[in-house]
């Protein structure tokens, strides 16, 4: 009787092991639906999006696809060439923020797949908390006050300096819209140099206890280094005044329960975004395994923020990013293998 129980126990252990190993066994057994297919990815020019691109690329490689190195493209250029079929996909679609950059035939030729992050693409203006409290800043309108402009004027031009977005980014157009409709052009100077360098300068000023005003988004290393509610605060726009690209989306521009906001709700002036993989429809339909992986893949915001912070601290080479990918997969092995197995079985 005791031997029988021992045998049954060993059988149960073996069955459990086989069950848990099923995903990797499926792929190891030669189920590589992407074999023989070359994939041409693109990648956004902002490096805070490199991690998710590298993870998606690794997933396709494990499904058997031969994936080329990604092309770094400006948003509008990517959306044009993906509709032409010159590239196959990217993992950096922010919607509705990118709507204004889509070509007219986008819906016919390309599609948005899955949610890397749903309703997680938060954007807005932040101020160093100490100085927001000192000068009673709750809105962009407060930068019209002489004492506020003087405090935030780092270059001596008589205007408050705002670390903004480089030309060509979707946020650059919205910030310019805000400067216009809120009559802020004579009060705020947009710093539109390379974002990473501009934010590094702002961070240095913050460490010297100087006032800072900057635009940022989540996920991003900035709000990992400068924590809302502790180091900085989200402030309001004077009123919700949508740009042409934001029309009809007013309800997604005022948010409740935002950590570190000066008010609840807070009028951010930017639409909260969903982050999607965007792919050429012809490629997606011909490659159901890739399409299924696109639909399944997602990332927690905190994981992206943590990786972005490592990059900001110097771990930003291709080798570093691939190591971050290895570490993430090792820490999320069951989820990763489940995605691969489901993708490999797609028809």
Structure report:
- The chain has 347 residues and is of the alpha/beta class.
- It has two domains: 32-119 and 274-344, 3-Layer(aba) Sandwich (D-Maltodextrin-Binding Protein, domain 2), CATH 3.40.190; 121-272, Glycine betaine-binding periplasmic protein, domain 2 (D-Maltodextrin-Binding Protein, domain 2), CATH 3.40.190.
- It has 15 helices and 13 strands.
- The strands form five sheets. Strands 5, 6, 9, 10 and 13 form a five-stranded antiparallel sheet that branches.
- Strand 7, helix 8 and strand 8 form a beta-alpha-beta unit.
- Helix 2 (22-28) packs across helix 15 (333-344) and helix 3 (50-62) crosses helix 14 (318-331).
- It is elongated and about 70 Å long.
- The chain starts with a helix and ends with a helix.
- The relative contact order is 0.18.
- Residues 1-5 and 7-26 have low confidence and may be disordered.
Describe the structure using short key phrases.
single chain; 347 residues; alpha/beta; D-Maltodextrin-Binding Protein, domain 2; 5-stranded antiparallel beta sheet; two-stranded parallel ribbon; 15 helices; 13 strands; elongated
């Amino acid at each position: 009787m005791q031997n029988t129980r021992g045998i049954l126990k060993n059988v149960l252990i073996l069955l459990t092991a086989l069950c848990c190993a099923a995903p990797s066994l499926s792929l190891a057994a030669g189920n590589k639906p992407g074999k023989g297919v070359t994939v041409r990815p693109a990648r956004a020019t902002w490096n805070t999006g490199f991690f998710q691109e590298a993870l998606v690329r690794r997933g396709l490689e494990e499904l058997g696809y031969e994936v080329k190195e990604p092309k770094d493209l400006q948003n509008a250029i990517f959306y044009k060439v993906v509709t032409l079929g010159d590239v196959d996909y990217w993992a950096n679609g922010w919607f509705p923020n990118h709507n204004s950059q889509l070509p007219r035939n986008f819906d016919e030729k390309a599609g948005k797949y899955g949610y890397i992050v749903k309703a997680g693409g938060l954007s807005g203006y932040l101020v160093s908390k100490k100085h927001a409290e000192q000068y009673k800043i709750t809105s962009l309108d407060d930068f019209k006050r002489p004492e506020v402009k003087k405090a935030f004027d780092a270059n001596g031009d008589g205007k408050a300096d705002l670390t903004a977005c480089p030309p060509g980014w979707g946020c650059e157009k919205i910030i310019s819209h805000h400067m216009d409709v809120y009559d802020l052009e004579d009060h705020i100077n947009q710093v539109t140099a390379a974002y990473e360098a501009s934010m590094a300068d702002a961070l240095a000023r913050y460490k010297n206890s100087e006032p800072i005003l900057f635009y940022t988004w989540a996920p991003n290393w900035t709000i990992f280094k400068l924590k809302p509610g502790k180091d900085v605060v989200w402030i309001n726009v004077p009123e919700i005044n949508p740009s042409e690209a934001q029309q009809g989306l007013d309800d997604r521009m005022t948010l409740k329960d935002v950590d570190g906001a000066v008010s609840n709700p807070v009028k951010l002036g930017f639409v909260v975004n969903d982050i999607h993989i965007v792919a050429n429809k012809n490629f997606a339909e011909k490659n159901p395994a890739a399409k299924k992986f696109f639909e399944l893949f997602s990332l927690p915001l905190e994981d992206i923020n943590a990786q972005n912070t490592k990059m900001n601290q110097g771990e930003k080479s291709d080798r570093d990013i691939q190591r971050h990918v290895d570490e993430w997969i090792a820490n999320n092995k069951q989820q990763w293998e489940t995605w691969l197995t489901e993708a490999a079985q797609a028809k």
